[in-house]
Write a structure and sequence with these properties.
heterodimer, A: about 170 residues, mainly beta, Jelly Rolls, eight-stranded antiparallel β-sheet, four-stranded antiparallel β-sheet, 13 strands, about 45% strand, B: about 190 residues
């Protein structure tokens, strides 16, 4: 039995920024788990990209609770991976939490599947499954609330903690 | 402006949960596929179990469900509920007095090559002999224009400690090559 679930990196934003990139991710683990508590100056979906890839290689299927109904939608052939819908970050810290999991991120045989659970006490909850159509190992992961092109920012105090989970050989 | 964080020490000693979360064993399906994925001789030294994995079926279909049984029990001792989104609406699924717990759909042979579903399954208090056993799951597959995301619960009406877990495809298919499930143990305080 091997102890695992190791903290790889953690950061708290000291100033507002349009995106956060976790780079030089080692291929030493099987899965990645990124836990985020984010505040943003616009009520916008949370987005991810891998390896700086801005081509239309991402897609997402979502299940959301809006406060009055349960709904589902999807995005296909997108240039970003959408991680939330109703559980979008708000301007007040501590009102949303997102847990983003990337499976078999370093294998070079399969496309990459990721899941995110988003929680906003004031606006809704989301569960998403996403596909990154690339067989390249993921070595960097970027997060943004502006779709990597708008003007909204991740605000000071937002936290990001990345864990690695290793499987038994 | 964007912030770039370089990770220089990826295997660093700082371990948030290390010591309480252990890898028990991993099954990776080889060429030709496999009809079952089984974890046996599971030690009772943990509080909870977690299965993490990616799955694809050999069945000629875009996506298909899979099932779980404990301790090889094929009696009608299981039940399950699921809430899922299929990209256009929220749906629900359930089964009572079943011979298995049904779990989310994953990609099949008709899906684009390279697409695998993924899931995390938590099996709670699995070694406790005073109560029945429950699991929960978050799992699904996105196929770039198709797919489901699921939230599941399941019960096994048996107070025996769980010592083996068997996964099977829901119909006639096998788990395809490169499907991989890893079993982890979570210690209590």
């Amino acid at each position: 039995m091997t102890a695992t679930y190791e903290k790889i990196a953690t950061t708290t934003l000291g100033s507002a920024t349009t995106s956060v990139t976790l780079s030089s991710i080692s291929g030493s683990y099987t899965d990645l788990v990124l836990i985020m508590q984010i505040a943003s100056n616009s009520s916008n979906t949370l987005f991810a990209r891998f390896n700086g890839d801005s081509a239309t290689n991402y897609s997402t299927t979502r299940l959301s609770g809006t406060g009055s109904s349960a709904v589902s939608d999807r995005e296909s052939n997108s240039s970003t991976m959408a991680l939330s819908n109703y559980a979008y970050p708000l301007s007040t810290l501590g009102t949303t939490t997102h847990i983003f999991q990337v499976f078999n991120y370093s294998n070079t045989t399969t496309f990459k599947t990721a899941m995110c659970r988003g929680n906003s006490a004031s606006d809704g909850v989301d569960a998403t499954v996403s596909l990154y159509r690339s067989t390249s190992a993921i070595t960097s992961l970027s997060i943004s609330t502006n779709g990597f092109g708008g003007t909204s920012s991740l605000l000071t105090g937002s936290t990001f903690t990345l864990y690695g989970i290793l499987k038994e050989a | 402006m964007s912030l770039i964080l370089g990770i220089l020490d990826s295997g660093g000693a700082a371990a948030g949960a290390a010591g309480t979360y252990e890898s028990i064993s991993t099954v990776t399906v080889g060429a030709g596929g496999s009809s079952t994925i089984t974890f046996s001789s599971i030690p009772s030294t943990y509080t909870h179990l977690q299965l993490r994995g990616i799955t694809r079926s050999t069945r000629v279909i875009t996506q298909t469900a899979f099932r779980v049984r404990f301790n090889s029990d094929s009696g009608s001792n299981y039940s399950y509920h699921g809430l899922y989104g299929d990209g256009s609406s929220a749906q629900a699924d359930a089964g009572a007095s079943t011979t298995y717990i049904q779990l989310p759909r994953f990609s099949g042979e008709s899906a684009t090559a390279g697409i695998f579903g993924a899931g995390v399954i938590d099996i709670l208090d699995y070694a406790n002999t005073n109560k029945n056993k429950t699991l929960r799951a978050l799992a699904g597959v996105d196929r770039n224009g198709g797919g489901d995301i699921w939230l599941n619960s399941g019960a096994w009406y048996n107070t025996n400690a769980i010592t083996s877990i068997t996964l099977t495809e829901a119909s006639t298919g096998d788990f395809a090559q490169y499907s991989q499930w890893a079993l982890y143990g979570i210690k209590g305080s």
